[in-house]
Amino acid sequence: MLPSILINDSGFANKAKIILSPNFDNRPDKSKINLIVIHNISLPPGIYEGNSIIDLFTNKLKPDDHEYFKSIANLKVSSHFLIRRDGSLFQFVSCLDRAWHAGESSWNKINNCNDFSVGIELEGSDFDAFEGKQYARLNELIQSLMDEYPIKDIVGHSDIAPTRKTDPGPYFEWDQIKTCFDQLPLKN
After folding, report:
1. Helix ranges (DSSP H) in 85-131
2. If phi over 0 gives left and psi between -120 and 50 gives alpha, with beta otherwise, what is residue 47?
3. pLDDT digits (tens, 9 = 90+) for 56-111
4. CATH number, domain at 38?
5. Cross-strand pairs, 119
6. Would you give the DSSP letter of residue 76?
């Protein structure tokens, strides 16, 4: 079993490699962090190696390194966390700040999910299964976030932006995080 992750008072996880992204701003209300959004990402699409995801989140992606990068090199995006295929954990933005991961989004009739959510990217795609090490780290991270913040829901990017996004995709096994769902407060 992996050792537990602790989120400190500054919103950083003790087990994460911290690589700060400039793509964040202040949350309107730090006490309203109540949603976890799960994403998938691979850069270039379908490639699970290298530092292209990190480069994207830190505005260092070079458009000439791959044809696909030309279309995304100027995006200003980030996520709070990235879990690589081997289970390694990276953090780009403090949980207390608003990472730019959800875009135009809505959950439970509240718009702008970046305002009240924590974004977790899994290195993967809509076309491949995720690794057991990723689910283990994801469960550990979710539990830590639930211990620190009043999390009410865990959703996919496709749930908050259904006309724009498909991730975490059909290969994401929601039952792999069922024990986390069982701990969520009962809905009214």
Report:
1. none
2. beta
3. 999 999 999 999 999 998 999 999 999 999 999 999 999 999 999 999 999 999 99
4. 3.40.80.10
5. 37
6. -
Question: Cα 105 from chain centroid?
Answer: 15
Q: Rounded to whole angstroms, how far apart are CA atoms 150 and 162?
A: 25
H or E, element range at 111: strand 110-111
Phi-psi region of 61 (alpha: psi -120 to 50; beta: other; left: phi over 0): beta
Verify whether residue 121 is a known catalytic residue.
Answer: yes
Q: Is the separation of the CB atoms in 24 and 96 below 8 Å? A: no
pLDDT digits (tens, 9 = 90+) for 106-160: 999 999 999 999 999 999 999 999 999 999 999 999 999 999 999 999 999 999 9
Whether residue 28 is contained in a domain is answered as no
Nearest in space to 135 (alpha carbons), one of 150, 146, 151, 120: 120
Instruction: Judge whether 100 lies within some domain.
Output: yes
Which residue is catalytic, options 67, 121, 140, 173? Answer: 121
| Closest to 27 (Cα-Cα) out of 90, 108, 101 | 101
Question: Which domain, by its residues, includes 110?
Answer: 17-21+34-182
Six token digits for residue 86 = 């081997």
Distance CA 43, CA 50 (A): 8
Euclidean distance between CA atoms 157 and 174, whole angstroms = 13
